[in-house]
Amino acid sequence: MRAPRSVALPLAAAALLLGCRSGYEFRGTPVDPPQPAPEIEGTTWDGEAFALSDFRGRVLVLFFGYTFCPDVCPFTLAKLKRLQERLGDAAGRVAVALVSVDPERDSGEKLAEYVAGFHQDFYGIRLEGDALEAATGAYGVAVRTRRLEAGSGGYYTVDHTGTLFVIDPEGRLRLELAHDATVDDMLSDIRYLLGEHEEQRG
Amino acid sequence: MKAGLARRLPPDDTGAFRHILAVIARGVPAALAAALISLVAVVGCSPAREEAGGPGARLRVLDARIPAPPPGAPTAAVYLRIVNDAAEDDHLLSVACDAAQHAHLHETVHEGDMARMLPRPEGYAVPAGGTLELAPGGRHIMLMGLDSEPAAGDTVALRLHFEKAGAIDLEVPVVGGGAESGEARDGS
Fold first, then answer.
1. How far apart are the two ends of chain B, measured CA to CA in Å?
2. CB of B110 within 8 Å of any CB in chain A?
3. Structure ipTM over 0.85, yes or no
């Protein structure tokens, strides 16, 4: 084997390591380079002003869904609840926000009741019309409403991107987690982001 | 009769269940686990027994459960496993539930990063010697327009219609606070 090839591999490995500081390899898909998380602003169900940037200083897990969804959304929220439990003392430094892709059926109040049913630090965000389109567009989330089969009483479902977006305490979009990410995967990545934040502050 | 939703099972009823099969109740509080053990598999315990037991058509329903929906959720999902011990294929055709306006067979399908919920009016095959699994994030029974919000400890009456085995009645337990589904999959 010629010398140049024998150094190529170690070099590549070193480059990879440098790329992620301490050599930590995210289990989710890193947003590289990290970029400011697109802002989402609105009002909470009781009329308070709300902005994603209010969550600076904490890791925010953001995803899109709707309360009518009986399968994936509760499953994801249940995993996030488990995540919070396993974070222990660090739980207060992580928040979860669900943006409804179904404002027609999800009143703000209903949404708040729904997410708070999982955990006190879970937030429901209701946006309408252009504001919702802007938010889904900014995060690259596709939304398609589909009527159910005849005899379903006009019920419909909303196909949507199931990705979880992880925003670091500096407000940067850092990671995308797939719908099937495990609690262990999330815990590992989020602990890393919290540790990194501590290091930068300290 | 008003359907079984939110009806708490009287203690005497539990004795009627003849088939108590394996139960996965890790992480579920003891009282719930006990309820699960009594309720998990209820093939052939009801008036539908005769209809269900055609010659050679033997199905077992295991781990039937409804994760308690979050407050305000207008829908609930039913998960279960159906084991076909018979030598011939069967087919789950439809589901009836008096406690809901609609009970449909659905499947969540992930295409790339898109989650889509597709109606499956054609039902699901239960192959001979095989198992049909309805599990979180995939195939499920979707209950829409529930009479009232099912809470942990309640049971919901369901009737499954099979091509060969006919009808099988179930009393499906509602299990704890949404956590069940999240933990079952990654075993944490």
1. 41
2. yes
3. no
DSSP state of A150: T
Cα distance between residue A31 and residue A49, in whole Å: 28
Q: Is A180 on the interface with B (CB under 8 A)?
A: yes
Nearest to B113, CA basis, from A39, A131, A63? A63
Q: Between A105, A117, A159, which is nearest B115 by CB?
A: A159
Q: How many CB atoms lie within 10 A of CB A103?
A: 18
Choose the closest CB to A70 out of B71, B115, B142.
Answer: B142
Query: Angle CA(B120)–CA(B57)–CA(B21) in degrees, nearest 5?
Result: 85
Q: Residue A123: how many CA atoms within 13 Å on its side-chain side?
A: 22
**A82 and chain B in contact, CB less than 8 A:** yes
Which residue of chain B comes nearest to A69, CA vs CA? B75
Q: Give A66's DSSP letter.
A: -
Determine whether the interchain pair A74/B101 forms a contact, defined as Cβ–Cβ distance below 8 Å. Answer: no
pLDDT tens track, chain B, 188 positions: 333 332 233 333 333 332 222 232 333 444 444 444 444 434 434 333 333 444 445 899 999 999 998 888 889 999 999 999 999 999 999 999 999 999 999 999 988 888 898 889 999 999 999 999 999 989 999 999 888 889 999 999 999 999 999 999 999 999 985 444 444 433 33
How far apart CA A119 and CA A110 sit, in angstroms, is 15
Tell me which of A63, A66, A71, A155 to substitute to probe the interface with B (most B C-beta atoms closer than 10 Å). A71
